[in-house]
Amino acid sequence: MIRLGYAVLIDTHCHLDPQYFPLGPDEAIERAREVGVVGFVVIGVGVDLAPARSAVTLAKRMPGRAGAAVGVHPHDAATLDDTAYAELAELSADPAVVAIGEIGLDYHYDHSPRDVQRQTFARLVGLARERNKPIVVHTRSAPADTLAILTAEGARDVGGVIHCFSEDRAFAEKALDLGFYLSFSGIVTFKASRSIQDVASWAPLGRILVETDSPYLAPIPKRGRPNEPAYVVHTARRVAELRGMAFEALAEATTLNAERAFNGRLRSLANAPDTFEGDGFHPLARAAQTP
Ligand SMILES: [Zn+2]
Ligand SMILES: [Zn+2]
Asked: The whole model's pTM is what?
């Protein structure tokens, strides 16, 4: 059932901090709104808590439309000493924080030692359980250890999102069994991404999300440019195509999924205007016409 006269999308994973958007995120957010991208999960991670604080500030400016995820990226896992943990724990209690993330394991880059990555990941799953908030998982070249930690630390109790899904069907099945959502990024639009496209084509409609991971990994036809939330339209369009379904239905399903995945703290559909004030064009159709 399409509830609105037009489709809306939530970008479930974007980095909008000043290091990527030196002039601030407002223009990118406006460009997103113009094409129907009305919800944002803003990820705040870095070598210190500055990006997390800026994500929370941004989320507070757009209540119901934006939520912050705060955590420690596996690249920076070694920075989580007791002081940093205490500060992060305090910040994570803020109602504008909708998830703990992104957290996880990255054995491709190995920017932090693997044992430290595992410790930090486990500790932050514990924080999410304490806060009763879902987690946003980054996993690269570490499928077995990621699943082992999610299982051992009881991540099922809070659930969450496997962000920028880039694993195979076997991993997807196990993540779904643990109650996780699978979030597809611009990678799904790349020709070589066969196994990711395969997962996008069969994963249960009620368990998939779309994201940009801005400023990285812009989807085709924006590939090579800095990514921004408006471009999530292209990713959603490709996922709809892979599933052989109408774009509007995919947009609505993923938006409802995102609202559910983040425990109802994002309310984009409820907050969206009944009609799109503009030139009468379906906003997302207009985006597709001007690649
Ligand atoms: Zn990531
Ligand atoms: Zn990210």
From this structure: 0.92
Span from the CA of 177 to the centroid of ligand 2 (angstroms):
23
> Residue 264 — pLDDT band, cuts 50, 70, 90?
confident
Domains of the chain as residue ranges with CATH: 9-289 (3.20.20.140)
Q: Looking at the CA of 75, which ligand is closest?
A: 1
Asked if pLDDT for residue 261 goes beyond 80, the answer is yes
CA 290 to centroid of ligand 2, rounded, Å: 27
Q: How far is the CA of 274 from the centre of ligand 2 (A)?
A: 32
The CA 277 to ligand 2 mean position distance, Å, reads: 32
Residue 74 has what pLDDT?
98
- Tell me what the mean pLDDT of segment 135-159 comes to: 98
**pLDDT value of position 287:** 44
**Could you read off the pLDDT of 87-118 as tens digits, one per residue?**
999 999 999 999 999 999 999 999 999 999 99
- The Å distance, Cα 3 to ligand 2 centre, comes to 30
31: CA distance to ligand 1 center in Å?
Answer: 23
Q: Are 91 and 70 in contact (CB under 8 A)?
A: yes
Distance 282 CA to ligand 1 centre (A): 31
* CA-to-CA dists, residue 107 to 5, 92, 104, 110, 186, angstroms: 44, 26, 10, 5, 21
Cα 13 to averaged position of ligand 2 atoms, centre (Å): 6
